[in-house]
């Protein structure tokens, strides 16, 4: 959903599914359209070359082609081995997982029952055809013969592929489908009603609550309070979603602040009365030259979070993307700034909110911020995680992937299970270790925190053995028995290769 990218910037990008190497883990930064992706770094080029080399060497040992190896658990392990070789030992992975048949698959099977609640997922409505998205494909035709021959399609972003990527190609247990406001209703990606209908459809197939949904709020727009009341009464969303920048698809007439007593607080009062008290707010993800090109950039900052949380202790505020800008300079420069100051712009400001304002009703969410930084510079990603866990506690950080923009979220799940904060960062900044893939910190972030927030009982209805008996689990078993290879496709934007 490109909204910050100018025509000249769009010409520099390509669809990730055709413009990048089909690695188990992306080897260049992928954008969800909310920021211009950086070019592939020298380090990422080295990672990519090493993955290709290992695939050629190890595929025959596993009795599969290079493509088959890359789609396997062993190929995923090889990707993290390559990242460790280039960036240092930040990921928990052994050579045996890549080299010896069955080792990586055994590890993956052992974690298959882990509860994972992805609180930020996306797809577009069936009739969505805003030219701003299709223009991406039109630009890409210049270098992509497949698009020239087949035409530009939106199918990769539609519901059918979304369900496949989220529930069949990954170990995600539950997902929350989200959307965004639009000044022009024709540009709405998904309406609140469409999200609620999809929730009902998926959960009817499952026989359980596998899919959750947002209700979109539009503070300041004429009639927005009545719309909030109607959405609450008729659709009963699981939580709310708002963008303080207003319409993220174009310069908006209705930006707002979370601490605006005249506008936002009226909505908070109605949320309290309606009993839907989780408010998810998009923050961060501004373009590199945001002060010059993005009129509402100040509303993307997190300086309005603390007062709102303090004034409304009965509400819970979830800050999506944790306020990451993201990289506005090279990853190395961003990391050097952190090593010099111990801070990451806006992320550190957000992490200081609980202590500064004495609140416990603010959560940080990891969508896009984790995905973009872990493949670009995992030390920077580890620093971000260290800041968030130190400021919020491991019990107030939520797992989100911003998929289906990035394809199946399985590579993000694996990256998070394996990443660790280095000893030097722990000593210098007082960060705690993230621990084992199935340890208390990662279990909490991957799913237990969201389950608690949304009032789910992991001992009964949402216990692994209960979910394994529902309709989604049965479809997943049939899908796996058919033996399809993971595609390793991502569906956002990458910087075009020259």
Jot down its keywords.
single chain; 498 residues; alpha/beta; TIM Barrel; 2 domains; eight-stranded parallel sheet; two-stranded antiparallel ribbon; 25 helices; 10 strands; globular
Summary, kept brief:
The chain has 498 residues and is of the alpha/beta class.
Describe the fold and architecture.
The chain is α/β, with parallel strands linked by helices. The chain has two domains: 17-112 and 480-495, no CATH class; 117-461, TIM Barrel. Helix content is 45%, strand content 8%. The protein contains 25 helices and ten strands. The strands form two sheets. An eight-stranded parallel β-sheet has the order 2-3-4-5-6-7-8-9. The longest helix is centred in the N-terminal third of the chain and has 17 residues, at 42-58. The chain is globular, with a radius of gyration of 21 Å.
